[in-house]
Amino acid sequence: MSAGGAPGDVGRVSLRGIVKRHGTVTALHGVDLDIEPGEFFALLGPSGSGKTTTLRILAGLEPLSSGRVLLDGSDVTDREPGERDVAMVFQSYALYPHMTVYDNIAFPLRMVATPAVDADRAVREAAALVHIDHLLARRPGQLSGGQQQRCALARAIVRKPRLFLLDEPLSNLDAKLRLETRVELRKLQRALGVTTVYVTHDQEEAMTIADRVAVFMEGRVAQVGRPQDIFAKPASAVVAGFIGSPPMNLLPAEVRAGALRVVGADLRLNRPLGADGLVTLGVRPAALRIAPTGIPARVYLIEDLGDTTIVDLDVGGQIVKLRTDQRPDVREGDNVHVAFAECHLFERDSGARRGE
Amino acid sequence: MSASNLVSARRLRTALLVAVAALLLAVWAFPVIWALLTSFKTERDVLAYPPTVIFEPTLSNYRDVMFGSASLLPNLLSSTIVAGVSTLLTLLFAVPAAYALARLDLPGKRASGFYVLATQMLPPVGLIIPYYLMLQKIGGLDTYGGLIVIYLTFSLPFAIWLMVSYFEDIPREMEEAALLDRAGRLRALWYVILPQVRGGIAVTTIFVFLNAWNEFLFAVVLGGNRVRPVTVAMFNFISVEQTLWAKLAAGAMLAMAPVILLGLLAQRHIVKGLTVGAVKGGGRT
C-alpha cells in the first residue's frame, strides 16, 4: 500500500472485539479493526468517541475489559507498553523537560543499552530527518511549539519501531504550521514506510493525510474505508453529518408514493427512493443550488470566503448550508427555492444508508 | 484620573507595601538580632538597665558553650544524628509512598489520604505518655532508635502528603512516554520523574529536618543523658536560681547555624518552573 513498505512487511495491527468499560460507562463497544503494514491509518471522531482510548489500548497504556490486540499476528494484549515495539507521539509531546533535545531523542535507545556510537548516529539521523539537528543542545523549554513537536517525532523515529502511534500531534500548532506539518508528516511516513495510526478529531486532516480512515462514533466504529469512499458513500447519517467542511446537510424527509416530501415540498427524483417511510435526506453543501422551484427556503446569512461563498438558508426552521463558487444574486432575508443535484438517503430511526 | 495622579497613587502603594514589609521584618528580626547581640555580651551587660547597645563584645560565651564544662557540641552531634537519620529515613519511605499514592489506583487510596492528614491533627502532648510507656517496654528510652522512630511517626505522613502534590503535578504522559520508551516503571521513576520533583524533595527535606531539629517535647521526655539534642541541653542554662541569658543566646546561635546553612544550600535546588515548556500550554522560557 505505501510507497516504501517496511522491511519484511511488519506492522500489521488487528483489534478484535475491544471493549472498554469505566465503571458503568462503556467507552468502547467491541471495536474490530485491521490495519495493513505500511498503512497510514486515521482514527477519526468527535471527542469522547473512543478514538484515543483505542490508541492507548493499542499502546498498552490502558487496560481493556475484553478483546484481543494482535501485532503481526502475535497476541500482545497482556504485554507491557515497552514490550510492544511501538512508539508514540503524545498530544502534549511529553518531552522530558530536564533533558536536552539530544538526550530526549537518545532516551529510548539508552533504555535498551544501545552502544554509544550507534546511538549517536541514530540520534543525529532522526534529528536531521525532522530538521532539528541544530537544536540538539537545547532543552524542550527553549523550543517553539513546532520544534517541540519535531523533537517528539524524532524520539519516536529514532527506535525504528514497527508502529507509530500519533495522538492528535498537530492540535497544538497554529493553523499555518499545522498545514505544513501535515504534508511533511505524510512524506516522512511514506519515506519510512512504518505503519502509522493517527488519532484526530479534524476530519479534513484525516481525509487528506490517511490511506484509510476509521470513523468513531460513541464508542463504535461507524465506518472504515478510504477517505474518498467515506466521503462519497457515508454509511450512516451521523458519519455523513461529520464528514466534509461544512458537513452534509441533514433534513427530515419522508418517502411516500414514489416522491420525497421535504418541508412541505414533494420532490420527484431520478433515483430510486426505496420503500415508503421516514428518512433523513442528506445533501452536500456543494450539491445545493438556488433554483426557481424546489424546497422553499429563506436566506439567513451569507458568508463570503473569497473564492467560495457559503449561504446559510433557513429551511423549515433548520439551518442548511449551501456552498458555491459563484456568489449568488440573493440577499439576507430573501425567500428562495433550493434544489440539489445529488442526495443521500438514510433511515430515520436507524440512521443506516438506503441503497440507490 | 490624570497620569500624574496615577503615578503618585502607585508610589503611595509601593511606599505602603515597603512600610508593612519593613514592620513585619522588624518583628521577626528583632529577637534574632537581640539574641545575636546578647550572645556577645557578658552576663553583667545582659542585665544592664537600660539595655546597652554599645558594649565591649566578648567571645567567652561561645567558648563556654563549645569547649566549657557545659559544652553543647555533644548535643549538637546528638541533634544532627536524630534529625539527619530521621530525615533520611523519612525521604526513603515517603518518596516511593507518595509516588504510589499519586499514580497507582490502590484500593483505599482516598481514605489513606485522610488518615495521613489525621495524624497531623493529633496534639503531640496526647501521645507522649503512650509513647513513653511503649519505648520503656522495648527498652527504647534514651536511644537514638527510639527517638528517631517517634519522629518518623509524624514526619513520614507530613512528607508523604507534601510529596504527593509534587508527583501529581507531573503529567501522567511523562511516565507513559517513558514506559513506551522501554524504561519500565522503576527506571521511568528514576530517570524521568524524580529529576522533575527535585524541588519538592528539597522542600520536604528542609521541612522534615527543621521539625526534627527544633523538636523539644518528645526529646526532653523520651531522651535522656545519652540522647540529648541541643534544644533540651540549652534548657540547662535556665535554672531555679538564675538564667544564663548570654550562654543561652550563644547556644541558640550555634543551634541556628546548621539550619540556616541548610536553607541556603537547598535554596539553589528549589527551582520553580522546571517543567515549563514540556507540555502543551507551557509558555516559552
Care to describe what's here?
The complex is a heterodimer of chains A (356) and B (285). Chain A has helices spanning 51-59, 101-110, 116-129, 145-157, 175-192, 203-209, 227-232, 237-240; strands spanning 13-22, 25-35, 40-44, 66-71, 74-75, 86-89, 163-167, 195-200, 212-217, 220-225, 249-256, 259-262, 265-267, 277-283, 288-291, 295-304, 309-315, 318-324, 335-340, 344-347. Chain A is built from eight helices and 20 strands. Chain A has a six-stranded mixed β-sheet, with helices on both faces. The model of chain A is unreliable at 1-7 (pLDDT under 50). The longest helix of chain A has 18 residues, at 175-192. Helices cover 23% and strands 34% of the residues of chain A. Chain A is of the alpha+beta class and 356 residues long. With 285 residues, chain B is mainly alpha-helical. Chain B has two domains: 3-63; 70-280, Orthogonal Bundle (MetI-like fold). Helix content of chain B is 69%, strand content 0%. Chain B has helices spanning 3-39, 43-47, 60-67, 73-103, 109-121, 128-137, 144-168, 172-180, 184-193, 198-214, 217-222, 230-233, 245-267. Chain B is globular. The two termini of chain B are 36 Å apart. Mean pLDDT of chain B is 86; it is low at 271-285. At the A-B interface, strand 6 of A face helix 8 and helix 9 of B.
CATH superfamily descriptor of the largest domain in chain B? MetI-like
Distance between the termini of chain A: 30 Å
Number of helices of chain A: 8
CATH top level class name of the largest domain in chain B: Mainly Alpha
Number of separate helices of chain B: 13
Largest sheet of chain B: none
How would a crystallographer describe the biggest sheet of chain A? 6 strands, mixed
Q: In angstroms, what separates the terminal alpha carbons of chain B?
A: 36 Å
- Do you know the CATH topology of the largest domain in chain B? MetI-like fold
Identify low-pLDDT runs of chain A.
Answer: 1-7
Strand percentage of chain B lies at under 5%
**What is the number of strand segments of chain A?**
20
% residues in beta strands of chain A: 25-35%
Helical/strand content category of chain A:
alpha+beta
Mean pLDDT of chain B: 86
Number of domains of chain B: 2
